[in-house]
Amino acid sequence: MRAVPPPVWNQGIEPKNMSSAACHQVRTLFLNETGERYSDITVRHLPIPNWEGNLILTDSTPNAESHIIGLLWATPFKDDIVRVAAFVIHSEQQGKGLGAEAWNRFVDAALKEGYKQVQLEVKASNIRAQRFYERRGMTVRKHLEGYYQSGMGYMMRGPLLHYS
Ligand SMILES: CC(C)(COP(=O)(O)OP(=O)(O)OC[C@H]1O[C@@H](n2cnc3c(N)ncnc32)[C@H](O)[C@@H]1OP(=O)(O)O)[C@@H](O)C(=O)NCCC(=O)NCCS
After folding, report:
1. How many structural domains is the chain composed of?
2. Which strands make up the sheet holding 8-11, listed edge to edge?
3. Which of 9, 15, 62, 125 has the smallest number of CB atoms closer than 10 Å to its CB?
4. Whether residue 126 sits in one domain with residue 64
């Protein structure tokens, strides 16, 4: 039996140019892994440029259509700050170092573009993700009421750090 190759991160296209099938896969991923319900329009309106901070994880089963099983979507925010608008990996692929790999690739790209800081929003209940970001130098800067339907959120920010 042929071994299934591991999933790979590749640069993605701008959300506004994604096929309906790809958009549907992204919405399903958000819903299953974060509980957040997005419409096609919301996904397509995310202002993620074509760059190395737009990373898509796809499975690569031979002879089958590939599926989006993770993404890291970052976008210019203001001054020297880049914002991670979405970061999610299919539950079956979590905890294998794929998130860390995407993060470092994004950090390298953002530093090369001249950014110095990274900012994002995270659910207050999502302790695992907060620890991930804290280990990478970020801290909670603001409490966000009403940002998530399901409860409180935090805005986290920190220097862009390559972490290993
Ligand atoms: C947050 C997320 C993107 C991280 O990606 P990942 O591939 O699971 O992360 P990794 O395998 O690279 O592991 C990252 C760290 O978590 C640790 N870890 C792995 N599995 C873990 C588990 N089950 N529980 C707690 N920590 C775990 C690893 O030791 C690793 O440590 P490090 O930070 O020192 O490198 C991913 O877990 C995810 O999609 N979660 C659901 C959606 C989400 O919460 N997104 C963030 C929204 S702001």
Report:
1. 2
2. 8-11, 54-58, 68-78, 81-89, 117-123, 151-159, 139-148
3. 62
4. no
Give the structural domain span for 35.
1-74+86-115
d(CA 82, CA 119): 6
Q: Is 87 in the pocket of ligand 1 (CB under 6 A)?
A: yes
pTM for this structure?
A: 0.93
CATH of the domain at 54: 3.40.630.30
Cβ(136)–Cβ(103) below 8 Å: yes
From the CA of 72, how far away is ligand 1's center (Å)?
13
96 with 121, same domain? no
Residue nearest to atom 20 of ligand 1 (CA): 95
Confirm or reject: Cβ of 99 under 6 Å from ligand 1: yes
Spell out, as residue ranges, where the chain has pLDDT lower than 70: 1-2, 62-63
- Separation of 94 CA from ligand 1 center, angstroms? 6
